[in-house]
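## retry 2 of 3
previous attempt timed out at serialization; input unchanged, resubmitting
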Amino acid sequence: MAALGLRDRDAIITKEGLIFRVFGYSHPANAYICDVEYASAEIFKSDNPKAFRNRGQRVFYKFYEDEGWKFIKSNFPQYMLIHEMLQKQVVGVENHNIAETRKSDIELGKLIEEEPKDELHAAMQSVLELVAKHSDLLVNDFGVFGSLLHRFYHPKLSDIDLIIYGRDNALRLRETLWELYNVRDSPVRNEFESIESIKGKRWRFQNYSPEEFVQHQQRKTIYALFSDEKSGRVIKTEFEPVKAWKEIRNEYNSDTRILQKGWVKMFATIIGDQGAPFIPSIYRIQPMTVLHGPRGAEETTRIVSYVEEFRMQAWKDEQVYIEGNLEEVKTPKSSFHQMALTYCPRYYEQVLKVVS
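## retry succeeded, writing output
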């Protein structure tokens, strides 16, 4: 295994002008599994009015839904890797194709040290100062992602996208935000305090209602609205949990195979939530009732979710309802079953939700 120099949410830039986001923590030797997020205008143009970005004089466009995967597959096949465990192609960048990297913690450090250049830059600094004042968290515990990471944000329109490193720090931050949400005249409040938070949103999940979504999002507390006094704007502010270096274990093994077994509907109890805050989110479970599924479903030991809606979705001792694909993980020494929630043809049928 290659030593990890990058982790989830760090960025890789190639000589062609493609910007990739490192995805998760398990990668093959000498490469990183990624999502492609942006491409320079020299190689890609989008008609989507939300896609435009500019960094100085250079223009970029953001990919939405699966158009990035399709673009890479059709135009830059060198950025499609064989995932040996899954035996299929995924987006990724080999080390020798990396022209530049942007690390989330380092870039935030630069933004903190600099005098604010605009109202969003100043608001980001204010949010961090507020959180630090009400907790024992340090600036070094945070990072930045999204348009702030790449310096092509819109000062009057962009959100504040921050990272909190480490499980303990993420839980401490959640407690701090919850306390701030309950303080009268606090400049931050819970983004999902009511169903109005998703008004106008096109809803596609089939086994997960908008009301259930809001209830689950509300208790995560990492999604905030910051009332910025200087700009007079209410800014969406997200705190994305990412593993601290000491928490990372690369599970990629070229000798392991992940076999698809079929669709499962199940009730289960969460017996371990250590990996719940991160992507992928990992929950250890004890199956209770298998309503539908192939043989082996009753032996499922964990849920692995790559779906952001299902991060921090449940905690230890809670009972949940799950629908997703059953997988058998066969290592050279043993095998086990897991439920995978990920990009697939039945994406919007998938669900993980608390039922008690």
